[in-house]
Design brief:
Largest sheet: 4 strands, antiparallel
Order of helices and strands: HEEEEEEHEE
Number of strands: 8
Structural class: alpha+beta
Shape: elongated
Strand content: 35-45%
Length: about 150
């Protein structure tokens, strides 16, 4: 607080300095210290359905292809000793994109470089029912529950 003995102009300079410091602090916080979380942008790439053509999963991928999100339209019941595993199928054998951990009807996977390449080469996605932790052989061992064409 400025001294009451200061003149009008001196009090104005003091108040202006305080205001400039506040503005500089807010700008510093906004642009240098506080980094808001950037939410990834997803695009729809597939709908996975049962063999009776009942849609169950909507599949979305980020623009950079690093993350995939699956949203369940109707959450399937999975036995406690089993896991769902996501597969990309091109012209050869299916390749795993990872074991799916379903949380509130959603699955999010972050791809390694190899998984991203598998996904980009795939033409069809499939989900199989596997032993806990995923397929022990590297190929689907359980029933294929859902499939759908990739449309990018």
């Amino acid at each position: 607080m400025p001294s009451p003995k200061l003149g009008f102009w001196q009090r104005g300079l003091w108040a202006g300095s305080v205001m400039a410091s506040l503005v500089a602090g807010m700008l510093l916080w906004k642009y240098l210290i506080h980094q808001p979380e950037v939410m990834p942008v997803y695009q729809d790439v597939a709908v996975l359905s049962t063999e009776k053509a009942e849609p169950v999963w909507i599949v979305r991928v980020t623009d950079d292809g690093q993350q995939i999100k699956l949203s369940s339209l109707e959450l399937p019941t999975i036995p406690s000793d089993r896991d769902l595993e996501l597969w990309a199928i091109a012209d050869s054998a299916p390749e795993s994109l990872g074991v799916m951990r379903v949380v509130n009807g959603q699955v999010e996977l972050i791809f390694s470089a190899k998984q991203k390449q598998r996904f980009n080469q795939g033409k069809v996605l499939a989900i199989s029912l596997e032993p806990k932790g995923g397929s022990p052989t590297g190929t689907p061992t359980g029933a294929v529950l859902f499939t759908g064409k990739i449309k990018i």
